[in-house]
Amino acid sequence: MGFRNRREAGAVLADLLSAYANRPDAIALGLVRGGVPVAAEVATRLSIPLDVLVVRKLGVPWAPEVAFGALGPGGVQVLNPEIAGRLDEEEIAMVVRHESAELRRRERLFRLGRPPLTLDGRTALVIDDGLATGATADAAVAVARSLDAARVILAAPVGATAAVERLTRSADEVVCPITDPHFGAVSRYYDDFRQLVDADVTRLLA
After folding, report:
1. For residue 80, what are the domain limits?
2. Would residue 169 count as lying in a domain?
3. What is the per-residue pLDDT across 27-77, written as a single tens digit (0 to 9) for each?
4. Angle, CA of 199, 200 and 201, to the nearest 5°
5. Is 24 among the domain residues?
6. Residues 64 and 49 reside in one and the same domain
7. Do residue 98 and residue 42 come from a single domain?
């Protein structure tokens, strides 16, 4: 099972999130980069606003694809203790410094001159294109709560079973139509999973 592309995945999610259509308190928040086209499709189909939530995965120095945690704006930091516990403090600090700088750069770029995101009393639909470890999505949920969202709904088309279970403990609701205990990589579930560049994201947000 899978999807042709992120747009089709967003259409499937929109059907599952139809209860939030035309809700004045609801907002679709795409995670940069891959979550933004999925969220854009959800926002269009549900007639709700679209915005971006910038978080950065913290990758193990010698295996960057393996996340030991994630960062979000406002000083939010989420660590996966099973992996982070294998690193020393300097290794963690080095990655955090690097990713903090990149997070600030992306915030400046993708906010497009808009003021900082506020979610006071709103229902935040936090959307990504897939959940491998769940670390980035977990940070995004924490960021949304720190911005005073009333409810945080985490939605992704596909996810590892363990990641989805992890997120049920932090989000108010998790919507994930395809879960797999032997997940592997998000790209396995898409025919077209081309990597997005910054210009793709800014075009969708504009």
Report:
1. 57-109
2. yes
3. 999 998 999 999 999 999 999 999 999 988 898 999 887 788 888 887 788
4. 90
5. yes
6. no
7. no
Question: Residue 100 is encoded by which pair of tokens?
Answer: 């903090």
Angle between the N-to-C axes of helices 198-205 and 35-46, in degrees from 0 to 180, rounded to the nearest 10: 10
Digit-coded pLDDT (tens) for 117-151: 889 999 999 999 999 988 889 889 988 998 889 99
Beta strands in the chain (DSSP E): 26-31, 50-53, 56-60, 63-72, 76-79, 123-127, 151-155, 158-160, 173-175, 178-180
How many independent structural domains does the chain possess?
2
pTM: 0.87
Shared-domain flag, residues 73 and 99: yes
Amino acid making up residue 101:
A
CATH number of the domain where residue 98 is located:
3.30.1310
Which tops the pLDDT comparison, 1 or 81? 81
Q: How far apart are CA 124 and CA 163, in angstroms?
A: 19
Closest CA to 19 of 146, 165, 158, 172: 172
